[in-house]
Amino acid sequence: MKYKLMAPCHFGLESVLKKEISDLGYEITEVMDGRVIFTGGEEAVARANVFLRTAERVLIVAGDFSATTFDELFEGIKAIDWPAYIPKNGKFWVTKAASVKSKIFSPSDIQSIVKKAMVDRMKEKYACEWFPEDGENFPLRVFINKDRVIAGLDTTGESLHKRGYRKLVSHAPLAENLAAALIMLTPWKSDRILVDPFCGCGTIPIEAAMMAANIAPGMNREFTAEGWTDLLPKKIWYEAADEANDMIDMSVETDIQGYDIDDGMVKAARDNAAAAGVEDLIHLQRRPVSQLSHPKKYGFIITNPPYGERIGDKDEIEGIYEEFAGRFKGLDSWSACVITGYDGVEKHMGRKADRNRKIYNGMMKTYFYQFMGPKPGRQTAGSAGEKGAF
Questions:
Q1: Backbone φ and ψ of 380, nearest 5°
Q2: Domain limits for position 308
Q3: Could you read off the pLDDT of 260-294 as tens digits, one per residue?
Q4: End-to-end alpha-carbon separation of the chain, Å?
Q5: What's this model's pTM, rounded to 2 decimal places?
Q6: Which end of the chain is more exposed for a tag (fewer CB within 10 A), N or C?
C-alpha cells in the first residue's frame, strides 16, 4: 500500500529534510513551512523513522481537506475511513492541534470536535456505542493552515530528536535533529576536521560522528507504529533495522573534537558519546575558548555558543564572542559555522557572514552564520569560500 506521509521539521530546515527524503528514494509531493510531504510504501514508514536525521516525526496523512467552520471540520474528519487505520480496541486521541492563519483557531475545540467525529465514524463501522481503547496507541495530530486541514496519525511517538543516547544535557542544548541539520548545511565531510569549542553535552560532535560512521539516528529506539500490526507488518521494522546495521562503518578515521570549559559537561559529553557508540570517534576535553587552536588546516568549527537565553550578562556574552573571533582569526584556512540568537557575531568576526540562515530553535529565532574558508588546495588569500550543501 502506498501512503501519503508528512515529516515536520524546524522552520528554516525544510531543504535539508527534503534532500534526506529524496536520498531515501521517496517522491516529494509538497514542501510547506516546517513540513515536507512525500509518498512511499509500508517500508517508507519504518525507513523514514529509522534514517531521517532532521525530521521531528513521521505522520501518515489520513485526511487533507478545507474547512472554515467547526461543522465543516467535523464532517471532513468523519468522512475519513478511520477503521482502515484504527482497530476496534485502538486508543485514539488528538495529541496536538495547531492552527495558523485560519478561521478555525481554538486548539482545544479542534481536539474535541475531531475526536467526536472520529468516534462517530468508528461507531458506523464497528456497530458499537463504546470503545474500550485498551489496545495500541494511535495518536493523531491536526494541522490547519490557511483553512487547509491535515490530519496525520503519528507513527513515531517520542520526537525523532530523542535518539536515546543523550542521558545528560547542558542548559538549553540543541536538539539532536537540529544539530544534525546544521552539520548537513555545511560542506563538512567525515575526512575533514570538525571542532565544537562550546560542545556542552556533546550533541554536535556526536551527531557528526554518527554521520561519519553511517549510524542511523533511529536504530536504537522504539516507535509507536511498531505496534500497528494490523496496518503495518512487523517485517518492515526488522528490515529497516537490518539495513541500518549493515551500513555502519566503525573503521572510519575521524578528527572530531569537542571542548567545554565545564568539567561536568565534558564528562556528560563523554557518557553521551559512549551511549551513542561513537566514543572512539570523538576527542572531548576541558578547554576554554581562549585555547581554541589546531595544527591542521581546512577544518570546520560548528558550534552553538552561549547567548541571551543561556547567559544573562551582556558584557560576558560579548567577551565570549570577542575571544572566539580572535582565536578563529588564527585559523586562517578554517570555516566557522555558528548558530546563535546573539546579533553581534559579524561585528566581532570583523566580516559579513558568507551565508546567514534564519532558523527557529523551538519558538526562539536564531541565525546560522557561516564564515567560509577556502577549499583545500586553494590559497587562502583571494580564494573563493567553500560552497555549502544547500
A1: -65, -50
A2: 176-216+254-371
A3: 999 999 999 999 999 999 999 999 999 999 999 99
A4: 33
A5: 0.95
A6: N
